[in-house]
Design a protein that fits this description.
Layout: E1 2-7, E2 10-15, E3 19-24, H1 27-38, E4 43-46, H2 58-69, H3 73-86, H4 91-99, H5 107-120, E5 125-129, H6 137-153, E6 158-164
Length: 174
């Protein structure tokens, strides 16, 4: 299985079961790439800023797409805690996190919540929009771990990581 995209008027084929890294040459190129992916069904973008709705709690941000997709809440509650545990959070820490508002979160926490929200809807493809920008070294390592977790959970899905220039961590090299 595969699907095609376009970059600089050239066709790019994305095959299922692979992780891709795309170095963006400009902000315009990034925006065009994201716009194209936004139109694809079953694609979720882990936004640079987390993409959370500021007037909703973290829990409400997590559950909103679950309700929209018709996923049972009971399953989602269990899955949220399971995913946060896989991301290294204890149950008390996870509970504290989901009770907070987006403005209270660090940039890494916002991206973590966005990732968990994406995992709840089991996307066919996941786009990471500049996931390393603004993070400390340890957080970058954790972000790389999240990307690996996506493919461990969904080995036949596609992930695409966008970055500018040399902002890709060494641990992403094959």
């Amino acid at each position: 299985m595969q699907f095609d995209g376009v970059r600089d008027n050239q066709k790019i084929t994305f095959a299922y079961g692979h992780a891709y890294r795309m170095v963006m040459g400009s902000q315009t190129e990034r925006e065009n790439f994201l716009r194209e992916f936004e139109q694809r069904p079953h694609t979720v973008i882990v936004a640079r800023d987390g993409g959370l709705i500021s007037s909703l709690s973290v829990w409400e941000n997590l559950i909103l797409p679950v309700d929209y997709q018709g996923i049972k809440r009971e399953k989602a509650i269990t899955e949220v805690y399971n995913l946060l545990a896989l991301c290294g959070l204890s149950e008390p820490t996870a509970t504290q996190l989901i009770q907070r508002m987006p403005a209270e979160l660090t940039l890494f926490e916002k991206r973590l919540v966005s990732f968990v929200r994406a995992m709840l809807v089991e996307p066919e493809s996941l786009v990471w929009d500049m996931p390393y920008d603004g993070l400390a070294a340890g957080e970058v390592d954790s972000m790389v771990g999240l990307q690996s977790l996506f493919h461990l959970r969904f080995p036949l899905r596609i992930s695409v990581t966008l970055c500018f220039g040399n902002r890709m961590p060494d641990s992403m090299d094959d």
